[in-house]
Amino acid sequence: MEITNRQGLPEAIVKAVSTEQHNKTADELSATTLLKGIKQIHLERRHWDEMKDDAADRIWAVWGEAVHILLEKEAPEEFAECKLSVKVPLSYDGEFTITGRIDNYNMKTGIVSDYKTASTWKVLFNDFEDWRMQGLVYAWLLYKNNFMIKKCRFIALLKDHSKSKAKRDSRYPQSPVYIKEYDITENSLKEAENFVMQRLTEYLKYIAVKDDEIPPCTAQERWADETTYAVMKKGRKTAVKVCTNPIEANDFVVKLSADHYVEIRQGTSKKCNDYCICKDYCNFYNNVVKQQGAGEE
User: Fold this and answer.
1) Are the beta carbons of 118 and 159 closer than 8 angstroms?
2) Measuring CA to CA, how many Å separate 247 from each of 47, 229, 231, 263?
3) What is the pTM assigned to this prediction?
4) Residues 23, 28, 31, 32: is their CA dihedral positive or negative?
5) Distance between CA atoms of 11 and 172, rounded to whole angstroms?
6) What is the mean pLDDT of each run of 10 residues along the chain (297 residues)?
């Protein structure tokens, strides 16, 4: 991947935000890669050397890397920044490797910790399913490598935390450090293994399929808002009612006066628009998401 520098930032910053491709070999996938959409995984692998990203758009990566460097020191009963792997036998001859880089693991307590930088919105919306699955895969990797595992813990530094908002709103995170934990049980480890095998099977299914023939990422993977249908009244700015079904919205309008109408509020795929580095090679983005944006303009 080529890192451009449109704003002429110091070379040190450009180097800091540059990244290498995860799992360069064809028979290896990382825990974090498994969380991406299958189409995104294949497009990134196939077009990595062609893709471009600007240093300014990756600036928070510097913050994330700095956090990890500061927290790399380990106690005698811990290890940090350790890469683990598990060989998964395939139905045909051969095997596939699942990897994960553990930020911190305490051998005494059986707790695996992962450091994150995040927005306060992640806490406010309780949006932690991606973290939970990442933690479960880390736990599974540790278990398969004969380590005791009791809990996975995420230690997040909230980069946009506001003390004044914390004082005014009890729902708002009360500290710039937020900790989310999950107990690891036998069922958790089974769920993790099922997830790994399902994602690996899905990945291998499309390994020889052309780019445009790979199904698009799911709505959840695209961070897509649902398309809604707002019942509006002429002269009023806010909706009378918002429906998720067009039939429901139209049926409701029929019961009202003639100055009511239905406004379609098209859902948007936030990841596609703002965070996917391979979108230029994605036919779903170019044919659907990009066209939606053009229509809104």
Assistant:
1) yes
2) 42, 9, 12, 13
3) 0.84
4) positive
5) 38
6) 89 80 80 94 93 85 68 76 91 86 93 93 94 96 97 94 95 95 97 96 94 94 88 92 92 90 86 88 85 55
Q: What number of other Cβ atoms are within 10 A of residue 248's Cβ?
A: 14
CA distances to 29, 60, 178 from 252, in Å:
49, 46, 43
Q: To which residue do tokens 């710039």 refer?
A: 176
- Give the fold, CATH level 3, of 2-213: Lambda Exonuclease; Chain A (3.90.320)
Amino acid residing at 210: K
How many residues are listed for the chain in this entry? 297
Residue ranges of the chain that CATH labels 3.90.320.10: 2-213
Which two three-digit tokens encode residue 178?
A: 């937020």
Quote the tokens at residue 82.
């350790």
